[in-house]
Amino acid sequence: MNNEFQFVEDIIKTGLPDAQVLVEDMTGTRDHLAITVISDGFKGKMLFEQHQLLMSLLKEELQSRIHAVKLQTYTKEKYQQLQEG
Q: What pLDDT sits at residue 2?
């Protein structure tokens, strides 16, 4: 991950300590981010609950540094299944 987005990973890990976080700049402006989060903290949660959790963690940044986010969330098992194809 680009170090300029380390703050995003740090914020997410406050709520999901086991999270793997991948952040991509979608537009080159550093404020439209594609964020992928892999965490077992999502187990048993519906997709909207997973996204609500992340949005609540990023709330302050969404009011200042981040303009838009595209979220992808996975449990570790689900992500592993995707990787295996």
A: 58
Helices in the chain by DSSP H: which ranges?
Answer: 6-15, 47-57, 59-62, 76-84
Written as six digits, the tokens of 45 are 């949660």
Q: Which of 66, 76, 54 is nearest to 30 (CA)?
A: 66
pTM over 0.85: yes
CB 64 within 8 Å of CB 71: no
Domains of the chain plus CATH, in order, are 3-78 (3.30.300.90)
Amino acid in position 14: T
CA separation for the pair 73, 32 (Å, rounded): 17
Q: Is residue 1 over pLDDT 60?
A: no
Query: Is residue 16 within 8 Å of residue 50, measured between CB atoms?
Result: no
